[in-house]
Automatic annotation (TrEMBL), chain A:
Residues 767-798 have a biased composition (Acidic residues). Its main location: nucleus. GO terms for biological process: positive regulation of rRNA processing; positive regulation of transcription by RNA polymerase I; rRNA processing. WD repeats lie at residues 53-95, 244-275. The gene is Wdr75. GO terms for molecular function: RNA binding. This is WDR75 protein. One of its GO terms (cellular component) is small-subunit processome. It comes from Psophia crepitans (common trumpeter). Keywords: Nucleus, Repeat, Ribosome biogenesis, rRNA processing, Transcription, WD repeat. SUPFAM superfamilies: WD40 repeat-like. It is found in: Nucleus, Nucleolus. It comes from the Eukaryota.
TrEMBL record, chain B:
One of its GO terms (molecular function) is RNA binding. This is UTP4 protein. The gene is Utp4. It comes from Psophia crepitans (common trumpeter). GO terms for biological process: maturation of SSU-rRNA from tricistronic rRNA transcript (SSU-rRNA, 5.8S rRNA, LSU-rRNA). PANTHER family: U3 SMALL NUCLEOLAR RNA-ASSOCIATED PROTEIN 4 HOMOLOG.
Amino acid sequence: MVAPGTLRVVRCGGNTLHGARAVFSADSKYLLCAAGDFVKMYSVATEETVRVMGGHADLVTGIQLNPQNHMQLYSSSLDGSIKLWDFMDGIPIKTFTVGSKLMALYTLARFEDSVFAVIPKSGERDTFQLVSVKLTKAAGQDLEARELSVVLDGVDASPKHIAFGREGAYVASVKDIILQVYFFKQKQLNRFSVSAVKAKSGNNHFTCIACHPTEDCIATGHADGKIRLWRNFYHKKEYTFSTLHWHHDTVMDLAFSVEGTNLLSGGVESVLVLWRNESDRQKDFLPRLGSAIEYISMSSDGTLCCTLHTDNRITIINSNLRFSKSIQGLIKSTDVKTGLVVDPRTKALVLNGEPGHLQFYCLQSDQQLFSLDIVQRQYIHQAGLNQADLVKVAFSAQGKWLATVEEREEATDPELQLKLWFYDEETQSFKLNTRINMPHEDHITDMCFRDMDELEDDSLILVTAGRDCVFKVWAMVEDTDPEAQQSVSWSCDFVGSYHNYQATNCCFSEDGSLLAVSFEETVTVWDSVTWDLKCTFCHPPGKIRNICFGRQTCSKYLIGATDHGFLCCWNLLSCALEWSAHLNILVLQPDPLSEHIAAVSWLSKESSLFVFKPNEPRPIYIQRNLCKEKIQLAAFVPRDEPETTGSEKYLWLRRSQLFFLTDTQELMTLSTKSLEERLTPSSKQLAVEESLPVTPFSLLLGKHRRQQAQEDIDLGKLVVHNKHEQDSPAVKELLHTPAHVLPSASFLCPIFINSLLISKENKSAEEVADEVEMESEKTEDDSDEERDVTEMEQEDTSALELLGEMTCKLSKAQEKELRKIRKTDYSWVSAF
Amino acid sequence: VGCEDGSVKLFQVVPEGIQFERNLDRRKGRILCLSWHPSDTHIAAGSIDILRVFDVSSGQTVQRIMVNYHVQKVKRECVVWSIAFLSSGTVITSDSFGRVQFWDWQQGTLLESHTVSTSAVLSLAVSEKEDSIIVGTSTGATYQFQLLPVKMGSLEKRWVRTKPFQHHTHDVRAVAHSSTALISGGLDAQLVIRPLMEKVQKKGYDAALRKFIFPHRRLVSCARKARLLLFQFSQHLELWRLGSTDTTGKDGEVLPLRRMPEHLVQLKSKGPEHIYCSSVSPCGSWLAYSTASRFHLYRVQYEGDGVSVKKVPKAPKLLLPAYQLQFSADSGSLFVASARGSVHVLQLLEPGGCKHLHTFRPPSGSPEAVYLLAASADGHWVAAVSGDWAIHIYNLKCLKHHCTVPTYSCAVTALAIHPVTNNLVIAYSDQQLFEFSIPEKQYTAWSRTVQNCGLHKVWLERDSPITHITFNPKNPSHILLHDIYMFCVLDKSLPLPDNSALLMNQSTLKQLPENARQRQLHAFKICKKFQPLLFADLLDENCLVMVERPIMDIKTQLPLPIQQKKFGT
């Protein structure tokens, strides 16, 4: 465990989350996903991340349930180890070191002490083999598993290219245009090939494979969108296949339903296709899943299906092909052009999401808050098609206005649109206010609002810098048109240029009085009221990459980073260079709540972080080797409440948190807390509660507990605790004592039954009784609904007994209690 | 025989013909298809919405299955277009809803149902082993179904739709399942043979996809002296006079016509029968055709511009249909190839009569029909090919059988007798060529050389047979052959090409200088300019007539195919 107080780089989302097919737990309550170096466990019911299991040193490439114990999970990683987890508790049970990179992992019920993995063939590049790994049963946590035997040679590295047939009778592997089937019992290897590249309908290569769970049938997906169903493949010559064709592009993954009657396929069209009875006439579709489907997996009971998408989304789909739930963290877009922007209203991170959309990503819950359609045009999944995409986004200080720029790349000149959105309090969403076609002649390089928190609305201005050598100032004007729906709209107020250089960056000072615009090598400072050029700075050679003003006590400084690896700080009062440092700065990010500025440099293939105050050239914090990937963007996100625990050294992290986005679109942050602390404890509790298998006994126990829980709520915290304490030991004892030391059942039964009865003493308090009556009526109603069937059976008996003299003597409250007890008792009997 | 009125009639096939035996149980509804159980005890009949199974011995309906029973809310009627009865008791139906269904006839239950198409499935055929079927749909697609084991080694088997093929543009009306190929034919006038690669042992003629558009028969006959062409259509004949020109030009030029081609006569056959064969005499004044039941002979007279056609009275009533008609070179007699292996010789008399002269019978007494004839120019010989591929040569002067050409294991596709040497040139369906000297009763030396050296590989791999052979009277070593796709002048005086040489070398030869060209020359001079080529014949020394029938002309006459949405259009 990392000692408290040291800063750690924590991955908190994004990246290519999915290296393998997701796995449902045996009861279909949890979904296990490989996510980077971790294995994540989601609750299917709540979509929450229940647990993150970390321990692998490299990408996790395969996860499989232990066929011998469904509460355990095998995971393989590129670091050459297979780990066995108890995923309910998140405990690594064993680690088997294999020694070579593991590309994929498969388990089979037939092979009790071995698993299958794809490893690179030693001595050869880009050739892989399927091996069976014998897992030794020795004691101890860390074990060696060097006993490998090659099953198939010349397989593909992708986990989708190998599948095991019914009952593990055979294994099928595809590579390029070759299908290999190996029968374990017969030790027979059959090879089939499809005809090579056809010019007209794209290529014929295999892309994925799935085996029928009960029959000898193999489904393969192809790059030209066809699905082939192979049969009779134990004959070298008389094999046969039929073709299903709907996808117009590569079939990304295939999955058979548990019974094998249905086949699911997905591809770049983001449509899940259900083929019934292997017929191309009977198919159903689930369209509009958002993005290309990468992996499909089925739960073992066949009720749920899960698709993992290329943009990191996880969709859970019912067996009747209805969309059920979506687990989405940071959506991966093709290119984050907008940069990392913080929405002042929700404190959510805002960046490119789905094509043409803006995603609002909640950092606390690792969930997408919402997605705003900016481009508002149908996205067509087709390669080589230039489609409008969102390139710039800016919020006004209060989050009341949102400015977006979208562009469509054309051969000659780009098609640009500047849109201004107004936040509508009623609908709680942004509403389009003004659309400006072609705001600039060429690409827009930067855009910013004048950040003046306390000033009136009409002082709000927007500045855009363009590659057409001008920067433009946009201001709100009263709409004179009486038919207009809104009172204000935006129009151009001022156009500025400097020596016909391309404008690259723009930035307002904190008080909004000065605007800095960089023109290639020069930074110009303008008065934001009169639009006079006040002064210029430059630090030749090298063009200006980033500029920003200092904040708070350091607002007299202007910071700029150049192409040639200099970080310069100019004093605005003396118009002179204050200091400069030789650093290849990629990202320059001021903290809006303090005077600190974070700069990320990229040097010799590692990123380093420097945090400094502009008034002193010595950085207050340096983290070398922040991560191996190139950091592209960074953002300070204000904390809800200032962190108190941090030591003096990390004062700069007190009011806001720094987030980075790497070029693989992995979101990282700096944190002093450990991984476990970051997960909410409640979700862990949830996991334990839900982990109990559903048996008549557990139903009874659950009912018992639920009742107690309800009473907890009903009676407040005053009364119930003692009862809870009183009851639970008997049950606990019963459950937790090993079976061989338990006394006889006849002895235990009365204790157990007694524990289920609700003692009357508690209810004597009169002031509580009335409340109880009312509330318990309600709870009874609830439970009545749940137990319709048992109620039916009991109706006559209860009626009979109610006629007895008991009822007359008892008070109303007691009567209710009695009825409740009866009901509980009977249902227990019927459950048996 | 199933009838429109719903009756099924049993006929007995006896040597003299067919004989009505009895009617099976008659119910309402058209009978559209019938299938015998392989043990001949039951017959399955497909009708509208139902299928019935008859017991042959009692004539009773023993099972009646509604094919439409489980389809909800369907108002349309379901036509069972085709039916097959397997020995296992499974009845397979294909219907107008695009389904192929498998029934257990005894229980009357549906075993499996496969919807293969949105339009009707019209035809169905079962392989001999009953483990594979082929169905044809009205969209032009054919599908194969195979009976495959569900698991390795298990006895449970299931019909699985495996291979779809789209070779037709219109309805596939008929399908057949041979042991190595799927054969389909349809409304688009194409016959397609699709080999099953897994059943074909070696690469060869059987291993390639074959498409046939025209019958492998001569449909055009030519009156050389009168310069007339007779075109045979299914229900009528057309007689045309060829145009002529008096200018000359270079290769590839289209010359202006002095006289336009002229449509002289259109002769419609009576009744619904198709014309089986036809011929025009070299002088152009006789015209004969035959349908399945009748033989017709006409006298054509030309008076100035007018033409009159007169039926020859008292033409002999031939008992059996004629399979081929051939006039002698002097137009004095007509040879009629009969279905019984005999060749009748009719003598044509001026001004319009005929009489039966002689009937040649093969010495073996083979009952196979004669389907090809060739007469020699000097009127001495006539060669006849019968269905057992034996070639008999008869002497016309002595009116007796002369000899038999050694039997070859392939069908004869064309034969002709050389006008000078009286050598019989024979083309077989495996593309082999033979030359047989009739006077010497043996193969010629050239023919033996051809057999020793072997023909060029490319030549043997062609997939359409030679349909006509003719000769150049000016140069006796030239043999003119053609099939649908090419016209070939075979020069016997030149060396045969070996497999390394280019067979179709006419275009490369043109570019070579004279001396190099001499070295490259070989016996086959092939021209592929005219496609599809129906007929080619030499009218005189410097005039060759070619008949081309563009496929587009046929296609435009076809009804519109079923509209299908094609992705991306």
